[in-house]
């Protein structure tokens, strides 16, 4: 008599617990939680922000779970664990790629920044007022515009102009920004027509970006071919596993095959690194 009563009470408590769990999940909004976890990756490409150590750990855990699930479903538990172990390296590579993309966008904005600042100086603004005016007018799109807005906020708080420009130059880490900041500093200390100098800097930066773009275009086919050739063995292994499941396991079951696969991976990875280094068009 007591056992059915206890079972009924347990069932009622379980129903209440399920409702409470659903309410917690709804309030937690998993999509928002996931968006917060991935936000450092987005900010690295949008604002060039370096993620903190806890953010890196969260990204690594999220990447490990995703790679573990993908590898497990595609080739079994061993492949899933191996892929999951590569998550920190993959996350680091993604963050570095996003920051490189941000720096490229920041460098591409130098001509627009120089011309907009030259127009502001021609209109009667000082360098400090011109930077604030260009930022508030949204005259420069992309990462360069966001950096100018941050610089304008720092100027509004009373930070010295030279310190703001130096911080901007260090964040950009690009020769074009070095030239722009050096031109402003030279005029502030030696005088001269800064507006004309800035327009000259804009023209020079545009020419340099055009040359880099031409270099990337000329080497695009060679880089694509090298990546395709390097990826063919992996594609072949994947197709063989799909056509005849168990091929990869049999291949890795023989010590001699494992040795050959390991040697192929080392040689292929080294070749990919050499090709990537030879095909770089950005200044070292």
UniProtKB/TrEMBL annotation:
Localisation per UniProt entry: Cell membrane
One Gene Ontology CC term in the entry: plasma membrane
Keywords of this entry: Cell membrane, Membrane, Transmembrane, Transmembrane helix
Parts of the chain that traverse the membrane: 59-91, 232-253, 259-279
Domain Type II secretion system protein GspF: 114-238
Superkingdom of origin: Bacteria
InterPro entries: T2SS_GspF_dom (IPR018076)
Membrane topology: Multi-pass membrane protein
Protein name: Type II secretion system protein GspF domain-containing protein
Organism lineage: Bacteria, Bacillati, Actinomycetota, Thermoleophilia, Solirubrobacterales
